[in-house]
Queue: 3 jobs
Job 1
Amino acid sequence: MFGNLDFDVIRRALPYLFLEGMTFTLTLTGLAALGGLVFGTALALMRLSGFKILGRIAGIYVDFMRSLPLVLVIFWFYFLVPYIGQWVTGASRPISVGAFASSLITFIMFEAAYFSEIMRAGIQSISRGQPAAASALGLTYAQTMRYVVLPQAFRNMLPVLITQTIVLFQDTSLVYVLSITDFLGAASKVAQRDGRLVEMYLFAAIVYFTISCIASYGVRRLQARIAIIR
Amino acid sequence: MIEISHVNKWYSPSFQVLTDCTTSVTKGEVVVVCGPSGSGKSTLIKCVNALEPFQSGDILVDGIKVNDPKTNLPKLRSRVGMVFQHFELFPHLKIIDNLCLAQEKVLDRSRDKAKAKGMQLLERVGLKEQAQKYPANLSGGQQQRVAIARALAMDPIVMLFDEPTSALDPEMVSEVLDVMVDLAHEGMTMMVVTHEMGFARKVANRVIFMDRGEIVEDAAKEDFFGKPRSDRAQKFLSKILSH
């Protein structure tokens, strides 16, 4: 059954697939995860803060993002950002931001919503006595968060955060709607060009599967190592 | 040192937790606060360093008004040591780092200085060998002694104890009380919420008895154990001293 399949097409496309495609995918995943983490922490702190209005704003944002399909957000954002840029800067024409910047911002905003919920659960998992003890020692709110609550919360939630990042790694393939050459996009271009759909998509699946599997295994190892003994 | 005057705290008009509490702790004095559970004694002691807000009345610590929005609370709290029922050591930090954190971040002491101070206090509570361990590796009694050392590392002017022995196994209670007795003998100003009447008899100057959010009795130790004036205090005492 594999008689008329040509797996050599994969070998020939390797440099293109990995140097261009995978590099883009990993860059986007890394930057989006980093940005999502920062923005997500801010959202989580807003939701947990005493200020009701801040909490409401963050809550609405999170619910909004989580109620939309990612591919729709990517698509909309790509078309909307130039106009928002024009409106903000007061330029005469829509500002072109480029597909990469647009997709990166989208992923950061989207992931932040998910990360913030993970962070919120992580922070809430720390007993109230801990921040009380920290403030009783004279630490400020910011110091309490930085040295006492967040380090513990991060350890609790790191496995879930990385798992979410693995999902993000797979989700970045959705940038195909902007015709960006990520790993899947590269594979699909070669597949169309050479008429080798089965080979290329099979190979892409194996690569995604392998990387995600190894990462998941790493998470389990990490989890055992960093867990705080109680 | 601590002036508590007419403090009221409520969660709703029908749910009053502290009613018109007035008392004081002078320098070098050891005051024991006791009473049935839910009587508001923990809440009162937490009001002293503003871990719990209250709606009316005033609390002054060393002349500084705790409930003044302009008060620099972190600074005030750094001078008031507090020991909690559940120890509240930081589980992600080694014992010695538990003692150093606030010294470095709040008092701006150098790492070496903080460490030296920490080791000196660990030695004092008999736990020098445990410095490099994590809290989870220590017994409850040891953790509570570390918590006391952690509070002392800030050179507090007064120490607050919120039921420091209630979460301990019986055989560990005395090792913690011993440290507290030593502290009292050294002249530390202390406010202690506890049911340990032996401790109160030994070192307290005054005993405050609370019930349903009110200070029912506030008397010198001899008077309190000799002839408590209120029925409620008598009943409470007969219950916990009968065995």
Job 2
Amino acid sequence: MTVSNEALAELAQCAWRIRRYAVRMGEVQGQGYIGQALGYADVLAAAYGHALRLRPEEPEWEGRDRFLLSHGHYAIAFYAALIEAGIVPESELDTYGSDDSRLPMSGMATYTPGMEISGGSLGQGLVIGVGMALGLRQKKNPAFVYNSMSDGELDEGSTWEAALAAAHHRLDNLVCLVDINNQQADGPSGKVLGFEPLAEKWAAFGWHVQRVNGNDLPAVVEAFDNARALAEPKPRVILFDTLMGKGVPFLEQREKNHFIRVDPPEWQQALAILDQNQPTPITEGVPA
Amino acid sequence: MNTAVAEKKPRLTTSAMIASIASEGQRVKAAPFGKALVEYAASHPEVVGLTADLAKYTDLHLFAQAYPERFFQMGMAEQLLMGAAGGMAKEGLVPFATTYAVFGTRRAYDFIHQVIAEENLDVKICCALPGLTTGYGPSHQATEDIAMMRGIPGLTIVDPCDALDIEQAVPQIAAHKGPVYMRLLRGNVPLVLDEVPGYRFELGKAKMLREGADVLVISSGFLTMRALEVAKDLAADKVDVAVLHCPTIKPLDEAAIVEAVRYKHRLVVVAENHSVVGGLGEAVASALLRHRVQPAGFQLAGLPDAFLDAGALPTLHERYGISREALGRRIKGWLG
């Protein structure tokens, strides 16, 4: 393990805060991709609390690691991470999805500091990532490009065009993060368009592959560290199996839907449950 | 061989004419796009070249030979080509992305729209085989590319006439801030505009190449070359033809068009290597109506709204009204 227990405990706090911010934004709109946000919070905590090189006060710093939110509908989770990272002030949270807000419902580069691309037309992040990784190499800039995508984007042909190209061009500065929650707009991914065996597919395309439980924070952190440290001149993918609604049992158990229905009083209930289960802060001792 | 077949006229073949639209004996320049890009890139290290398995067929191979470390082969993957070009532009490079117009526009439209245009990125999309410049049928004939690309906000669209236009356009589109779509003539490209005194390509400008009292042809692409040829032919019949060349389709030089049409009693014909739907013709019609300018007559000399035939280019240009002879006949017919 490359990080201390103290650091892991802090990341657990970070993930908890991301979940809280996301639920609060969901309440502002009365809807949102909250299931995905809760499921992906641990990955975002590991990214923004541990792996990424950033200067929060300078979101366009040339040396930053680029994080591409290909799945634009995860904006609610991503804004929570930007608040956690200190790039967007917490006070803006109440504007989520409102007119003239910098935090629109689907992520757009032209609206939000720290948002590298306009995602949402699914399957575009990874091709852009290939171009940025080539561009960084051309400039001799050692930054990494992280493309974050949903498992539904595995349906898009462009994802596999990019997968071929990244291996062909030996893009060792490109890391692809795939959230496998197995839910798409029309139902379970396996029924929409089966993509398993996924690890084998990426490996066959020439990528270094890790598949981990995306809600097991130590494993997630270790996967990020492995992806960075790898010496092989090949692109890296981390497949995160996540649980939609993670951390709020009544949402975890809700009939699995891409767009979870949440009734008005449930937002406060969700916050209450998160608060009851707040990870032990480091000042009060570290979990064994 | 039976006599019936032997007596038939020899049929033209498709492949004889795919490399160039130049007619026999015409003055040409080889690969003006590739040469101009190599020259510009010598002093502009930010310029990179990308292609989707068509470097040789878009004249980008010259750039690849000159600057191998700045050339990126994306394979036959047009969504990747456009998306990666956008990504490189985000890192401060100026990518020239080439493929055929059908693939670049139809197949990769959303990637141009969302990745490149929405962020106003400095990507220069240069696509060969525009309109009816191949006999391979609709799979390769980009007869609606301008209609598609005109719908993208902020995208500059260039339809050069000849080798001179192309070599002068390359540095200008490279220096232009924002995305550009250029229709590319490749291989041996006709050279005609050097015969027009004082002509030079200026991005965003239409140029009056010759004046004439009876007909005004407003044209782009190699149809400007045809219009100049027709003007010569009709002069013999005492028909006086003006030619306004509009190599920039978007933004359209509406001021020059309005000035050329207003207060002059002449037939206006818009000639273009593109479907009559959504191209220069409809753009000009819209501009004239909005400016309350009513020409004496108005006709579209574009390609029909149809899936075109396969065959040899001279045959097809004649069939669809954009050969020198057919365009001349159409204009004379409209004059009555």
Job 3
Amino acid sequence: MFSTVLGNVFSIPTLMAIFAGVVMGISFGAMPGLTSTMGIALLMPLTFAMKPEIGILLLIGIFVGAIYGGSITAILINTPGTPSAAATLLDGYPFTLKGEAGRALGIATVASAGGGIISGVILILIAPLLAEFALRFSAPEIFGLALFGISIIASISGDSLVKGLMSGTLGLILSLIGMDNITGYARFTFGSTFLSGGLAFIPVLVGLFALSQCFVSIEDIFEKRAEINKITRALPTKEDLKTIWPTILRAGVMGTFIGSIPGAGGDISAFVSYDMEKRVSKHPEKFGTGIPEGVAAPEASNNGTTGGALIPLLTLGIPGDSNTAVLLGAFMVHNLIPGPQLFVDHAPTVYTIFAGFMIANIVMLILGLSGQRLFVKVVSIPKQVLIPSIIVLCTVGSFAINNNFKDIMVMLVAGVIGYFLTKGGFPLSPIVLALILGPMAEGNFRRSLVMSQGSYAIFVQRPMAAAFIAVAAIALLYPIIKAIIVNVRRKEAS
Amino acid sequence: MKISRKFIMTLMALVLMAALVVGCGNGKSTEEPEANEGNQTEVEDVETDDEPEADVEVGDGKVDYPAKQLTITVPPAAGGGTDLLYRAMAPKIQEYLGVPVVVVNKPGAGCAIGFSAGAKDPADGTSVTAAVAEMLSVPYAAEVDFTYESFDPIANVNSCYGALTVAADAPYDTLEEFIEYAKEHPGEIRIGNSGIGSNWHILAASFAAEAGIDVVHVPFDGAGPAGVALAGGHVEAVPVSPQEVDVHVKSGKAKILATFSPERLPELPDLPTGKELGYGNTILTIYRGFVAPLGTPEDIKQMLDEAFQYALDSPEITKFMEEQNFAKHYLSDDEFLELMEREDKIYGEQFDALGLSK
């Protein structure tokens, strides 16, 4: 079988499919508004006529490439290309401001490939074990995870915690719009059918980051502020690699773990890993100013979720996120029914997919490192040309999500709000974090209570849920406790 | 001075963009089909690559179809099971009608956006809407401007039914034992469903009412996550279709007790139906068919019906549906309307009973 697998993987069509998938994935990911899920869904019909392993590896290539591609725009133009890259811009864009865009891209590429490969190793070695563990995750546990995620707002708020919390609250309020998913009650919809499903996430994300950034840049043009088009460094240094490898390891494992939980994906894992790195770091105050760990953590983590999401898909037939949900369809088309039986009936195909997944990550590394000289040129494009192009992309992307014109309105309104918030010094990342996690926390909190018939004991009795909630509480209260300790010490000293 | 000029410039850019959008918004009827066309060329290319035989010359059809193009509005999102079926059928419909057939997804708000848009399409044969069972539930759940009566039914092509699936190690092996257990443990059985007011929620509520048992309905974001919760032991039962729990049954984590279908399912001949066991009212059809905007001329509907039958009977679609587990279920316009009328009553009753009606 070993030789069959090798023969399958290293055949020209397979390698070409992986290569094409990664290239398309990177382009999809880098364009604001076009997501990995959309790329996979769009290309899926093309794979029906291919051999199963080739078709599926093409789609996996897109998945892997798109999650990485989102970081390119996050670093270069302060706009996450995919929701998963929303945490990358925290430290990625400051690099660009310093004229070191190439260095940040290099770190992101190495970290993405590293995270992906770590998740691949975990996928191959302990997939069935981790899948059984992930099955024990239900509403109370996911609520705990989401609550912990929301507590991260404190660490991504930048200069002002109060402004960060205000942004976070705005995000939570926006996430309330739409049909309440436990009682079916319409909230803040004002009788509009469009709003009854809630705000579509991508248009809000694109508007908040990309469009508001365009408005800010328009000001730069008229003020004739110094253009940042000098690029001093193109590749990460040896020291950079030395600093980030423990980060990649931690974030990759964390990403794989979170990715394997059905219902949690790259967006939350990137924020969690960023926060974790900040906590273990010896110099947490430098996060947000453009340091290698700040780029490596979210990137290794969100690519870690790619392998992680494949774990429940392949072993249990359960998609871990929206990308793998579409992939599940592709498996079914080829009569490969994911689940334990897949490993028995189609072992060579499964191992070919494993090997192809690893190769996809290596292809991504090569493409990313060789392509970044090209990518950084984006920064040198005159703003007068770049900004209209970005606005066109934002508009097309927002429309393409649901083929709905009203989503463009949402994007525009979000852009205007984002512009004024930026002017007022409010960080935008907490809004995105709250938009992702608000519905997740609320829905699962109330689902838990339905499951326990109103008893709050469910959050204490289930050990994993209790642990997450405890960690969230400590994370929230830690600054207060720290302040008290410092105060006491100061008094003792004086 | 400088600041104010900068501010004015920025403001002007904002106003310009707003004007652009509003302008486009007003010209929506002319703008949108264009945009759709642009969007679709890509998808169509993909499809013709996939099935070269579907690559027919426009005007080469078997009938003289009056409209220049047929747009199928699909309310569920691209890439899902429903979307796949309509996308697979589109080239064959095109072959019959001889005009381009494009599939446009209008997802969001639990299919409400797609149906709302579909009902407003021109009734001249240029548009049909993919009819799925959410068409019946959504009008009860939310403030929307359509019901199933806002459309002219044309044909149904596929139907699936729910089944009662429980954990493999549960102490009950038949539907009767399950009901008995539920009666002994009132309020302890948790039935996971695919969302509040969803088809499977209504099916579960309708079953509980007919069996006279007191259960807790736990809504999840779709049938998939509900099945996962069953496999993980977080709920006791799910009412979703056998296909949706197939992996859990095959992996030995779940067992199906009975199906809620009018007759035994051909793929599961050993499973009794709820009807055989005396619960004949607990049937909801998760149908997939075609409806046209109200007032579409009879002759056009006739041609469309023939085109859908032609596609449904073609060897390609037959093979596709078999492989993808879509059971063929053709219903003519009158039969389809009858089905929707019957089931609309069930939705109405259960939404009232659950206190979910808007």
